[in-house]
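Quick start: read one record
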Amino acid sequence: MKDRIYKSVVLVSFLILLFVQLRLTYNTYELRDRDYSIIKKKLINDEYGRSISEDKLYKGGGKIIDTILSRNMSNLKAAYFSNKEEFDKLSKRVSDTLLISLKKNSPMDSIFQSIVNRNGLDKNLQYLLTFESIEINFDNEIGNIFIFDSRTDTDAQLKTVNPYGVIIDGTLTNPNTRNRVTNLSVSGTLVYNYRITFNLFVDAPGRSLKVAMEMLPTFSLVALCIIIIVGINYYTYINWMRQKKEAEVKSDFLNSIKHEFNTPITTILVASKSLDEDEVLNDRNRVKALVHIVERQALRLHSHINQMLEISEINNNINLEETDLNYTVLTIVNDFKIKVHEPNELTFDPHTNEILMMIDLFVFTTMLQNMLDNSFKHNQSAVKKTSIFITELPDDYILHITDNGKGIEEANKANIFDKFFRAESEKTTSGLGLGLYYVKQCLDIHGWRIDVKTQLGVGTDFMVYIPKKPDRNNKTINQN
C-alpha cells in the first residue's frame, strides 16, 4: 500500500512539475512570438497610415468608393424605405461593383514594397488587405445600415477570409489578430454619411518557425531539465526500492539467524540441564543420547558461524594453483556422498580428457559443497537425484550441477545469488540465505560465469562456464 502511495505521489508531482515547465515554456514562446513583430507592426501601421492620409483603403481608394456610392445612394435610400427585398439586391450589386473595382485598381503592391524598402524591412514580408464592411446612414434616428458585411454576406464574388472580410490585395495566407497591423473604420460624407471597415495584415513566412529556432536554446534547456527531473525521480525511486528490499532482506535474515541460532542453543541448554539430573546421570544410554544431541547442535552452530566467516574472508588469501578439474570435482563428490543416503543419488560423469585449471581449492570446494547442499536441501522429491558432468564448448568448459527438484520460480531467478535472499516458499527450510551468494563470490574470484536453466516441477541445471583461457576481468553472473 505504501509502495503504491509513493508511486502515485511521485507520478503526480512529476506531472505537475512537467505541466508547469511546459506551460512556462509555452508562455515564453507566446511572448516571444508576440514581441517578434510588435516594433515592425507599429512601424508599418504608421507608414501605412501616412500613405492613406485623408484617403481610404489605399491612395485613390476613397475616390473609387465615393464615385460608386454617390451614383447609388438615392436609389439605395428609396429601395430601403419602399422594398426591403429590392434594397438587398441593390446592396449586393453595389457592394460587388465596389469591391471588384477596389481590387482591380489596387496599387497596394507598390505601396507595400515602398514601405519595406524605405524602412529596410525583411523583403520576404507578405501582406493581405481585406475589406470588412460598408455602412450607410440615411437617418440618424435609424442609425447605420449595412449594405455589405463579410460576417453575414457569404456570397460575395471575391474570395473571403472569415472573419476579416473580402480579399482586396496581397498574398498572406494566414491572417490573424497577431499579425493584423491595421483595423480601421473610416467615415465619409456624400449625400448621406457612410463608413467602411478594412484590415491590413503583415507577416513573414515561417515566422513561428523562426521564433522557435530563436528559442531553441530555451527548448534544449527545458528538455534537459525534464530529462534530469525524470532521472532524479527514477533514481530516487530505484534507490528507495533497493533500500526497501535491503531492509526486508535484512529483516528476513535477522529472523532466520534468530531461528537458526536459537534452536540449537535452546536444545543444548535443555540437554545440559537434563545431564545435571541424577536420574539421567545414572542411565548411561540417556547420557550418550544427550551428548549426541549436544554434539549435533554444536556442529549446526559451527556450520552457521563458518558460513558467515567464509563470506567475510572469501576475498582474502586467494591461492590459485593448477589443478585437474575432473579430479577435484570427483574428490568433492566422494566426500559429499557420505551425507547422501539411499535411495537418494549423487553421480559425477568426468570429462574424457584431463582439464588443468587455475583454481583455489578451498574456495572451489566450498562453492561446490554449497551447491550440492542446496540441491538436496531444497529438493522435495521422494528420490533426490543430483548429477554432475562436464561438457565442452570451443572457448569454455561447462560444469553442470543438475537436480530433479521443484525448480526455481521465474520471479526469483534474478535474485537467487543476492546476499541473504530466500524465496518465500523456502522460508520454512533452515538456512541463512548465504549459500548461493558465496557461490557468486567464488565465481567472481575465478573470473567464471554461471547460467541457470530451470523448469518448475522438473528441476534445475546450474551451468558454470569455465574459460579455457582464463580472463581475470570477466566477473559476470548471468541468469537465463
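Residues 38-203 form one domain.
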